[in-house]
Write a structure and sequence with these properties.
Elements lengths: L1 H18 L2 E5 L3 E6 L6 E2 L5 E6 L6 E7 L2 H4 L5 E14 L4 E7 L19 E2 L9 E3 L3 E2 L13 E5 L3 E5 L3 H12 L7 E5 L9 E4 L11 E7 L13 H11 L20 H13 L2
Antiparallel strand pairs: 1-15, 2-5, 3-8, 4-5, 4-14, 5-13, 6-12, 6-14, 6-15, 7-11, 7-13, 9-10
The chain binds calcium ion (CA) (3 copies).
The site of one calcium ion has 8 residues, from strand 2.
Length: 284
């Protein structure tokens, strides 16, 4: 009876620990604009801005691509609870337009091209830029001009005049970011495009990660939880976690960023084993 009570107490503590949400913010690790052009001679990999929507004067479409190093910011086994992308629109016609996020399906490179202000027309593509037809100029092309991405839209925002805009969390956006946690090699980032690209004058200029004004840069906000009992971080609680914890406790090496002080009191002792067993039995 006594053991059951102790076990329950430890389980409760471990559950509380596993339910805590962590919030992280990150700038893109790469971003660029795809300027509609059949030959892909226009680019903007390293400018202070990116563009989305349809240009009125030149009747060209702009799409932005962005990557975020999510696997570097979240621990293995993290369960994503919410994802949100915040942008600052710094130039715009007074045209209300809806924009959507899509999952990019292949690798691309950001490039060094940096157009003169206000950057709306891009500049001559240089080696390593991505363009409307190139995922890396000049030798590597997208399968489809305008970028390779899933047709399914995952999150949306509406922009009218300059100001702050947000793609708020949706199940699809959470699934996208979770995929980047689980399989970092599948992280080719996201693409932002107008939902109606025939809407003339809908182009918006947004801050890029290179913007000198830090508050204008894109920010991905992710909330996640980590299951304490998932010791090896594979998102399953099973015997392998037990094995990994015992090995860690015995000094044989610990997975990733975990350590044997399971209850976090600064000592590695039998109470950590007890706490782990409690968390393991409670599951997640
Ligand atoms: Ca960039
Ligand atoms: Ca596990
Ligand atoms: Ca301890």
């Amino acid at each position: 009876m006594k053991n059951v009570v102790i076990g329950a107490a430890f389980s409760a503590a471990a559950c509380a620990a596993s339910l805590g949400q962590v919030r992280v913010e990150m700038f893109p690790s790469a971003d660029a604009t795809l300027y509609q052009h059949d030959a892909g001679i226009l680019a903007n990999g390293s400018g202070a801005h990116a563009f989305i929507g349809s240009n009125l004067r030149f009747e060209q479409i702009r799409r932005a691509v962005m990557r975020f190093n999510v696997a570097g910011a979240l621990p293995a086994g993290a369960v994503v609870v919410s994802a949100e992308l915040n942008l600052v629109v710094s130039r715009s016609q007074p045209v209300e337009a809806v924009f959507a996020i899509h999952r990019v399906t292949t690798a691309w490179s950001e490039g060094v091209s940096d157009p003169p202000e206000p950057e709306g027309q891009g500049t001559t593509s240089r080696t390593g830029d991505c363009t409307w037809v190139h995922k890396s100029y000049p030798g590597s092309r997208w399968t489809n001009p305008g970028g390779d991405f899933d047709a399914e839209a995952l999150a949306w925002m509406t922009s009218y005049i300059p100001g702050n805009v947000s793609f708020v969390s949706t199940p699809g956006f959470v699934g996208l970011v979770q995929g980047w946690v689980d399989e970092p090699g599948s992280n080719f980032g996201l693409l932002i495009k107008g939902v109606d690209e025939s809407l003339e004058g809908s182009a918006k200029r947004i801050g890029s990660r290179e913007n000198p004004n830090v508050s204008w840069r894109p920010v991905l906000v992710v909330r996640y939880t980590v299951c304490a009992a998932d010791f090896n971080g594979d998102r399953f609680v099973d015997f392998f976690d037990f094995e990994a914890f015992v090995e860690c406790l015995e000094g044989g090496g610990c997975p990733g960023d975990r350590d044997a002080d399971f209850n976090g009191d600064g000592f590695v002792d039998f109470f950590d084993f007890e706490a782990f067993v409690g968390a393991f039995e409670a599951g997640c």
